[in-house]
Amino acid sequence: MTAEELRSIISAGLPCEHLAVEGDGAHWYATIVSEGFAGLRPIQRHQRVYATLGERIQTNEVHALSMKTFTPAEWLAQGGDA
């Protein structure tokens, strides 16, 4: 799997205002900004992202994914671009 493929899968299942993915093909790092995270605890946000990946997580197609998840307001407060 490539970073672009992973980015496409996540963005198809979760509307994202910002999505950055990098990694080595097995271990991935993503910064995800979505209004869909509003009102959710961090674990719930991660569960939403994992749900977009479906069986790819269970079959090890995506071995490891570290995430930073933000709402658009949180992202702007962190210094992210609009």
From TrEMBL:
It comes from the Bacteria. Pfam families: BolA. Transmembrane segments: none annotated. InterPro entries: BolA (IPR002634), BolA-like_sf (IPR036065), BolA/IbaG_stress_morph_reg (IPR050961). Belongs to the BolA/IbaG family. This is BolA/IbaG family iron-sulfur metabolism protein.
